[in-house]
Automatic annotation (TrEMBL), chains A, B:
Domain of life (superkingdom): Archaea
GO molecular function: DNA binding; DNA-binding transcription factor activity
Identification of the protein by name: Transcriptional regulator, ArsR family
Matching SMART domains: HTH_ARSR (SM00418)
Domain HTH arsR-type span(s) in chain numbering: 1-89
Coiled coil: 111-141
PROSITE patterns according to UniProt: HTH_ARSR_2
PANTHER family: TRANSCRIPTIONAL REGULATOR, ARSR FAMILY, TRANSCRIPTIONAL REPRESSOR SDPR
């Protein structure tokens, strides 16, 4: 689902409390209402929004009581930095996901799941939770380093306004010479604006004209 | 800062649009107000909340115009699954962070930052962005696998209600025998509730009593 819609949903404390409760066990409306100290009407309204977003589902038991539970895995990431406000929401990658094709990253986890007993499952769970922590630290490290690199890049440029666009143009040229239109497409900016940026960058010697486009300066 | 406070702030579309704008360049109130089509009064109110949270700062230029910019790096992660509603907010790890101590993860990135030219910085930026994507995929994979392991663990248990607590108790025993109070502390649940869970689990042969505590069954 859309990150914006997800943030709108999660921006409400009572909806977060409902999700925290449902993550522990399936519940019916009266239970949630009593636990939260919120009217059943308000709980029903929150549940309806969560259901419409596909986060929550209900099922009815033998006593015709309707239980709500969280229906799916999803993950939201928000990065805020002087150069970025990025939101990303994603469903977990499928099990068949080929981690051997990753270029920068090696995961040293036992993926053998034949004959798993409780002991093996519990150890695997512990390893996965540690791995999750490490990945999160790695992401924080990468985010910090990206900010440092952008700081260094934009220091060279001496641009007032939109320094991120200068960095995006340099980034577009990182894998070789390109035409203005291709740079503009990569940097998600109008070609005229990119022409101006390239002119500024070439004054500082950071880019150079080549036959049919631009390249990074030496 | 607190994840809940951050979600409350980000749960507003206009505040997200302000952050997206400030991530491209520092702006003054009138600029933001015109861009968003929102009254200066409302913009000032949003900026005040963002400033109080330490996300945004202002500085005044030679013409006494007050520019706002994003003041720091931060990162928010939300995991939603049938077993978890977790939010985590964090500042980026410091540069000196020792990635060689990670046990499960190897990052193969050039960390050499002597004599960096524009070309090297632009390539590094591209690598970092790819790495960021891979880490994000890795986390989605881990999250999916954690759900699978919890599915398998709780299938064995046949618990109604709070199946996550059963898994947390098994998880607490993954690294060896423990006393009830220590298990309760790990699982963040009252000792009496944990005693009941241990009794249920021992009926299924999943845990066993030992001298002064409990251990996983064979």
């Amino acid at each position: 689902m859309d990150s914006a819609a997800l943030l709108d949903l999660l921006g409400n404390e009572n909806r977060r409390r409902i999700l925290r409760l449902l993550a522990r066990k399936p519940c019916y409306v009266t239970e949630i209402s009593e636990y939260l100290g919120v009217s059943p009407k308000a709980v029903i309204d929150h549940l309806r929004k969560l259901e419409e977003a596909g986060i929550v589902e209900s099922r009815t038991d033998d006593q015709r009581r309707k239980y709500f539970h969280i229906s799916r895995n999803l993950r939201l990431e928000v990065n805020v930095s002087p150069y970025e406000f990025g939101t990303k929401s994603a469903y977990p990658a499928s099990r068949g996901f080929d981690i051997t094709t990753w270029r920068y990253l090696t995961l040293d986890v036992q993926l053998d799941d034949a004959e798993e007993g409780t002991r093996e499952l519990a150890s695997e769970l512990r390893e996965l939770e540690q791995l999750e922590n490490e990945l999160s630290m790695a992401q924080r490290w990468v985010q910090g380093r990206i900010t440092e690199v952008l700081d260094e890049l934009t220091d060279d440029v001496d641009a007032d306004g939109d320094s991120r666009l200068y960095a995006d143009v340099l980034l577009a040229l990182a894998d070789g010479p390109k035409l203005v239109d291709d740079i503009a497409a990569d940097a998600e900016a109008p070609p005229e604006m990119v022409e101006q940026v390239l002119a500024d960058l070439s004054e500082n010697g950071l880019v150079e004209r080549v036959d049919d486009g631009w390249t990074l300066g030496d």
